[in-house]
Structures are given as C-alpha cells and as structure tokens.
Amino acid sequence: MTQILLVGCGKMGGALLDGWLDLGLLPHDIVVVDPEEAKHPSRPHIRVVDAASALPEAFRPDVVVLAVKPQMMDGALPPYTRFAGAVFLSIAAGKPLSYFARVLGGGTAVVRAMPNTPAAVRRGMTVIVANPAATAVQREICGDLLAAVGDTAWIEDESLMDAVTAVSGSGPAYVFLLAEVLAAAGVAAGLPDELAARLARETVVGAGELLHQSPESPEQLRRNVTSPGGTTFAALQVLMKEADGVGRLMTEAVAAAVRRSHELAG
C-alpha cells in the first residue's frame, strides 16, 4: 500500500517505473510528475501530472523518488518540501545527502542511490546509502524499489559513492567501449564491418552471461580460456603489459571518474 511519487520519468525513472509494475505495484499507488510524459503518455494507466503544483492537495506519498538530472535538482526539489514526512529516494549522481538536508531539512529521511543503465533490462547494479533520519522500514522500502531493476548493495560510508559512480555507474560505458574497439580491431584484422560488430557484441554479451552464471572469479575465467603459448595468451601479453596495459589504463580511468564525481558533488 506504499504511495509513490516519481519525479522524472526519463530513461532511468521509466525503467524503475516499469520494474515496479512488474513487481506487482498497483498503478493507482504511483503518481508521476513529468511534463513530457504528461504531454505524450506512454503508460496511460499511470497518473501523470506536468508539475508539482498539479498534485492534489491531499496527496501524501510515502516515498518521493527523485529521478531528475542533477543539474535540474535545484529547480525541481523545492516544491516537494511539503512532503517532509516521506522518505526521499534520490538517484541523482553527485548530489550528497547533505545537499538534501539543506533543502529539505535535517530531519527529513533521505536515501541516495547510484543505479546504472542496465536497469533498463532488469540487470542493473545499484549502491545505496541512507541518512540517520531514514528508518529501517523506509530503508527496506527503498531497497525493494531499487531491487526491482537489478542487484543492490548498501553502504554506510557515503564517501564511497564517488568510487561507486566511477566503477558501476560509469562502468557500462567501459564495456560498450570494449565492444566498440574490439569490433574496430576485427575490421583492422580483415573482417567485414558487420561481422566484426556482431562478433564483438555477442562475445561481450556471452562473456558477461558466463561471468553472471559462473561461481568462478573473473581471474579464473580468464585463465580457463588462456592456453599457454596460444592465441589468447599472445593477445593478453599485449593487454596486460605493466607499463601501458588495460589494467593501468582502467585504474587511471576510474581515478579520473572519481575525481570528476567529487568535483560535481561540490
């Protein structure tokens, strides 16, 4: 019977909404605020309004899910201060718990989450942290809402969120880049464009599913496919160079993302 107010129904907000409906939440327990969705409803069975001012005066949500872009938060958040009795669940990158305390008041329950784009296919990874005002019940509700689109992990130290953002939040882009450059390397080796793209895509998808299903570590799975002196071994000799291999590049890339996440948090 939880009443949910979803502020923002873009790609991530929409993925969450679809996950909740698949989970069994009833449409009449969800209200969406999104001007674009109000103009062109893609889910006509869901109540949608174009602004906070259009919400019924008597409406009192249990959870306010903030799924707007971080740069829009300053303008979007103030109209919802009247729902201070609810728990605010934010998926806006770079907005710390202290930010919401300043706008909503220090006694407001706030949960901050960092999901990633595979949430669109129910294979997301979301890391969650709550402020002290969030009760055990509110934490459980927020965890369940986020688990509708994939796996979740709770942390107690919010400072880890910068690293979380760099690894899992930005991580899908690293995997997509791998597929992109693997296909380009295949073309450079003589494969037709379409075949190279297909081989790269399906290899990444298949390896990911094997990693998902196997109890073995990524390191062991790598070893399983690497015969001493074979073709994979020859390729890995290049990719795993200490000076300029993938390991060092990934470490530098994640560190750069951590720095930028910290800068965006102010």
Task: Describe the overall structure.
By secondary structure, this protein is α/β, with parallel strands linked by helices. The chain has 2 domains: 4-159, 3-Layer(aba) Sandwich (Rossmann fold), CATH 3.40.50; 171-264, ProC C-terminal domain-like fold (Orthogonal Bundle), CATH 1.10.3730. 47% of the residues lie in helices and 14% in strands. It is built from 11 helices and 8 strands. An 8-stranded mixed beta sheet has the order 3-2-1-4-5-6-7-8, with helices on both faces. It is elongated. It starts with a strand and ends with a helix. The mean pLDDT is 95.
Blueprint of the fold:
Layout: E1 4-7, H1 11-23, E2 30-33, H2 35-39, E3 47-49, E4 63-66, H3 73-76, E5 87-90, H4 97-104, E6 109-114, E7 124-130, H5 136-147, E8 150-154, H6 161-169, H7 171-188, H8 193-213, H9 218-224, H10 231-239, H11 246-264
Parallel strand pairs: 1-2, 1-4, 2-3, 4-5, 5-6, 7-8
Antiparallel strand pairs: 6-7
